[in-house]
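Model it.
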Amino acid sequence: MGDSLDVPKSFPVGVRSDLGFALDKVQRGEVPPIARRMTSIGAGAWELKESDERSWYRVIYLSKIGDSIYVLHSFEKKSRKTDKRDLDKAEERLAAVHAFINKGKKDEKLKKNSSKK
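Modeled.
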């Protein structure tokens, strides 16, 4: 969602590699050790946490739905506390994903009903 896949390209190589490996595990249905639930964002939201001597790095994603993993927000932070703007952005993108999924379900239902006629 948004710039969530572009932002990690600016992360240090080791951090990017660790986060990429963790997302690969998620795609295979596993829960990586650097993941934690983010119930404050919404149901199904998880956070991948990584750090180096300079910063903390986060990737917030929606657990696997069908064949898809939705990366809601990626960011770097300088303090231990996550900025409310980052949490708000993840919540907004989660709502957008749910709207997208619900629209797809409605479209599929309409398609199915119109083919019965």
